[in-house]
Amino acid sequence: MRVQIVEVGPRDGLQNESAIVPAAAKIALIHKLMAAGLKRIEVSSFVNPKWIPQLADADEVLQGINRSQGVMLSALVPNIRGLERARQSGLTEIALFMSASETHNQKNINKPIADTYPILREVAQEALAIGMKVRGYISTVFGCPYEGNVPLDNSRRVTEALLKMGVYEISLGDTIGVATPKQVHEVFGELVKDVTNERLAAHFHDTRGTGLANVAAALEEGIRIFDSSIGGLGGCPYAPGAAGNISTEDLVYMLHGMDYETGVDLEKLIEAGAYIGQQLGKELPSKVLRASLASKPAG
Fold first, then answer.
1. Could you say which residues form the signal peptide (predicted)?
2. pTM recorded for the entire structure
């Protein structure tokens, strides 16, 4: 059985770092991730640089990447202006994003959910018209930092709206890392009835240490696409206390141990994690990365 991994570290991971990582280092990281066998990499975001200065160099990063056959690069796009930048950069896939909870959507996008739909619809229509693929993210599916529990019907409504816009795949996000396997079974168990499991992905954060357990639960519900971040980088600027995404190294180690195929070379992946850890000058959360680095002789 095969599992697809969507690497979001260069975008979701680095956007939450206080230090600005140079474009050259981001490009080198992306090349290392490609060398490790990752076929889907979210490389940046075309949001206004004043909101996320860490990704202000999106155009430069895209220009510097050596494109590889069979590797799909993508970026977040919030509006038509961002779509035009993505088009000029040569991308063939973009991602739209919104929240299942009203307050998080307001703080994240600065608009209520109802006012977000027309903007995303316009972006999706334009993108599809020029031959791009469009992915969708739904944040706070499993809990909101401002509202607490988020009713499943919220996620169902947003999922339905995004699919009508022509989005080919929807990533359901545990933005603040509150989900448990029981909740994952409940959410995916219901949503796969509305949407085929091939069109749903899971995006877990490990704030409370349940990230990989939630992956195992989603696998049992037939989910075969998972977002993860190299080294466990990440968080959410609008979700106080949110830890990083599940680590790509930890995810690959677990999946291989469960006899799933990923097409990813774990040793090369660890090299990529070690590289970005060095660039940031700190130890990253990934347990597999830490174990690997600890077992290597000094010098």
1. none
2. 0.96
